[in-house]
Write a structure and sequence with these properties.
Elements: H1 2-7, H2 14-46, H3 49-60, H4 62-73, H5 78-95, H6 107-125, H7 132-172, H8 174-190, H9 195-202, H10 206-226, H11 228-240, H12 248-253, H13 259-275, H14 295-310, H15 318-345
Helix pairs in contact: 2-3, 2-4, 2-14, 4-5, 4-6, 5-6, 5-7, 6-7, 6-9, 7-8, 7-10, 8-9, 8-10, 8-13, 10-11, 10-13, 10-15, 13-15
C-alpha cells in the first residue's frame, strides 16, 4: 500500500492537506469570489454595468476555482484536475445549504474536504486502465458528486453553526472575543495556513469579521514596520501589502519576534469591536486578508455599501474611515515597533532576527 500511494503521489499528511490544499483553496477563492466582489463593487459605485457582470461571472465560479486550485496543490494529473471543476461546483452549491434546507456558509469548507477526497481517488485510478480518458474523470466526478450529496449539507450546517457561535459570542462579549478572534486569525495569516480560507469556511462577518481584519492587519503592517531597520522599503511593501508569512522562517528560528505583532492584535481587536464597532459585512474571505492588496479594506467598504443598500446604514461617515485607517494601518505601525523596541532592549530580538532572505 505504501508503495502504491507513493507511486500515485498520494501523501496523507497535515502539510499536504492542511497547508498546501488549504492555501491553494484561498487562492482559488481570491481568483473568483473575491476579485469578482471587487469588480462588482467598483462597477456598482461607478455605474459600469459590464464590470458588474464580470464580477458576477467571476464570483459564480468560486466552487470550480477552489477545487481546481486544490487539485493543483495535490499535484493531480490533468484528467483529475479538470474533472474537479464539476466536483467543486457541486460541493460549493450543496455546502452552501444546511441539513434543514436553509442557507449556510460551508461551501468553501465542503469544497476543501470533498475535492481532496475526489482528487485522491482520481489519482489512485489514473492511468491504471487502457480507457483512462473515461475511467479517471468518471471516478473523480462520481465520487465527488456522491460525497457532495452525502456530506456537503452536513458540512454546511457545521460550518454555519460554528461561525454563528463565534459571531454571536463576539456580539455578546466584544472585548474578550475581540482579543481571541484578532489573535487567532492574525496568527493564522502568518502561519503557512490560510486565514482567508478559515474566514470563508466559517462565513465570518460582522463584529467578528472586523476583529479578524484587525488581527490580520496587526500582523502584516506590524511586521512590516517592526522589521524596517533590517528590510527597508522592500520589506515594508512585501509584508505590508503582501504577507507576513515571509517571516515564518525567522519565527521558527526565534519565536519571540512574533510577540510584538501578536500583542498589537490583542489590542487592536477589542478596539475594533468595542470602541469603533468595526464590522466586515462584505465577503467573508476578505476578513482574513488584512492589508494584502488592500483586500480587507475593500471588503469593509463593500460591507458599508451593502449595508446602505439594505437600509441598515444611512451613510459612510468620517468616523468609519477614521476607524478603518487607525485599525488597519496607524495602530499596527505604531504599537508593534514600540513593543519591538522593548524586546530589542532586553535581548529577546537581536540584530538580523527579522531579516528576510
Amino acid at each position: 500500500m505504501k508503495e502504491f500511494l507513493k507511486r500515485k503521489n498520494i501523501e496523507v499528511s497535515a502539510k499536504r492537506y492542511g497547508i498546501d490544499a488549504l492555501g491553494a483553496m484561498a487562492q482559488g477563492l481570491f481568483a473568483s469570489l473575491l476579485i469578482g466582489t471587487i469588480f462588482n463593487t467598483i462597477g456598482s459605485q461607478l455605474g459600469i454595468n459590464w464590470l458588474v457582470e464580470v464580477g458576477k461571472f467571476a464570483s459564480s465560479m468560486s466552487g470550480p476555482a477552489m477545487a481546481i486550485a486544490i487539485g493543483y496543490a495535490l499535484q493531480a494529473p490533468p484528467l483529475v484536475l479538470f474533472s474537479l471543476a464539476t466536483v467543486g461546483y457541486a460541493a460549493n452549491q450543496l455546502g452552501s445549504t444546511t441539513l434543514s434546507g436553509g442557507s449556510g456558509a460551508g461551501g468553501p469548507l465542503a469544497v476543501l474536504f470533498i475535492a481532496v477526497l475526489a482528487a485522491e481517488c482520481g489519482k489512485a485510478v489514473s492511468k491504471e486502465t487502457k480507457v483512462d480518458i473515461l475511467v479517471t474523470p468518471s471516478v473523480t466526478i462520481l465520487i465527488g458528486l456522491a460525497l457532495s450529496y452525502l456530506l456537503a449539507p452536513a458540512i454546511g450546517t457545521a460550518a454555519s453553526s460554528l461561525g454563528s457561535i463565534v459571531m454571536w459570542a463576539t456580539d455578546q462579549q466584544p472585548f474578550l472575543m475581540g482579543i481571541v478572534v484578532s489573535v487567532v486569525i492574525g496568527m493564522a495569516l502568518t502561519l503557512p495556513i490560510s486565514s482567508a480560507a478559515i474566514c470563508a469556511a466559517l462565513g465570518l462577518t460582522g463584529l467578528a469579521g472586523g476583529a479578524a481584519v484587525a488581527g490580520c492587519c496587526a500582523q502584516m503592517v506590524g511586521f512590516a514596520f517592526l522589521s524596517f531597520p533590517e528590510n527597508k522599503w522592500g520589506g515594508l511593501i512585501s509584508q505590508g501589502i503582501g504577507t507576513s508569512m515571509l517571516q515564518m522562517g525567522n519565527i521558527v528560528r526565534n519565536p519571540k519576534i512574533w510577540i510584538p505583532a501578536t500583542l498589537t492584535s490583542a489590542i487592536t481587536g477589542p478596539i475594533a469591536t468595542c470602541l469603533f464597532k468595526l464590522q466586515m459585512n462584505g465577503s467573508p474571505v476578505a476578513s482574513g486578508m488584512g492589508t494584502c492588496g488592500l483586500v480587507g479594506q475593500i471588503g469593509v467598504y463593500t460591507g458599508w455599501v451593502n449595508d446602505i443598500a439594505a437600509g441598515t446604514k444611512t451613510a459612510i461617515m468620517g468616523t468609519d474611515w477614521l476607524a478603518l485607517i487607525l485599525i488597519s494601518f496607524v495602530l499596527p505601525a505604531v504599537l508593534t515597533p514600540l513593543f519591538g523596541m522593548v524586546l530589542r532592549r532586553i535581548g529577546w530580538i537581536r540584530e538580523g532576527d527579522l531579516t528576510l532572505d
